[in-house]
Amino acid sequence: MLNRRQFLSAAAASAMTFARIPKALGAQQTKYDLIIRGGRVIDPSVRLDATRDVAISGGRIGAVEPTIAGDAAETIDARGKLVVPGLLDIHTHTGRSPDGPKLVLQDGVTGWIDAGSQGADRIGDIVAVARSSLQPGRVLINIGRAGILPDGDTMDLARADVAAARDAIAKNRDFIVGVKARLSRDVAGANDREVLRRAQEVASSFGLPLMIHMGQTVSPLSKLFDLLKRGDIVTHMFAPPPNSIVDDSGHILPEVLAARRRGVRFDVGNGQTGHMRWDTIGAIMKTGFWPDTFSTDWATNSRSTGVIDLPNCMSKLLGYGMTVSEAVARVTVIAAGTFQLFHDRGTLNVGAPADVALLELREGSFEFLDNYKNTITGRQRFFPSGTVLAGKPVPRA
Ligand SMILES: [Zn+2]
Known about the structure:
15 strands
């Protein structure tokens, strides 16, 4: 039972609640900076896939509701389009060109990671591009101190220079968010395991993730994957045999399953050569061992390769049983968990940075290319249609 004082204070509290109602109704008339109206909002972070309005103010998501009554300085008519959190591409080479960030922004990419374009010697080149990028862009340092070399980054083992990499990271802590080790036969040769060991030594000493480039290695995966820790990323996970993650009888290798169980992430890394072949993809998808993230391995020539753009790469597994929402999750909420800088992105939650991608999901007959000139035909493809960055619509190029 309430005594008189408790009763009065409870009554006062409920009166206060009641008194707030007209104010709350008033709040619905808020003038927003921008309202994106009537799109199919897909936000896998809250399992939302429905027609919604999205209101933005002060560079943050203000509301996501069936109908938002408030007024806005600017309105985007998104009817017939998908409205999704800004796309995050965790394996690109955006930093190789000063125009890279602007180009991928047109594709809906509001956060990017340059994965190992440069090593310690010229990491400043990539950091400078990241620093001037409109959207958040960060860098993985190549363990090979001279970066990507036509003759192989670490064919000369002396280039896998632990001290030089550590020094470069220490000087660029705000922009270097991990380490990259490229391990193919023509990149590291028989040095692959030692290169990986050194890259991990560097990454671990800063508590940073390591991304490895798998496929076409001299060493089998069992000799490499045991060096990976929780939060590390394996890119090019669809690489065909001889060092595929799936065996001839269609089973995922035990060391691969063990790696995922302890928190190693698996990424697509579309790329152009040697990373994807439809028959291997089919076999892997059938096992249910699906990628955590899509990424493009983007370069300035991607428009004219099978990559095209991140939305195109997102479309490729729709024919292997992936839903539209599952595809969106792999470039939004799941990708956001990969690097700390994206921790509040990949979502349209109220209060999140207002980065939004507008996509068209077209129906028809679309050809998708692997890295071996084989094509498959899909019935659906995502096309970029608009980008909102920090609450501001990005002009279409
Ligand atoms: Zn790459």
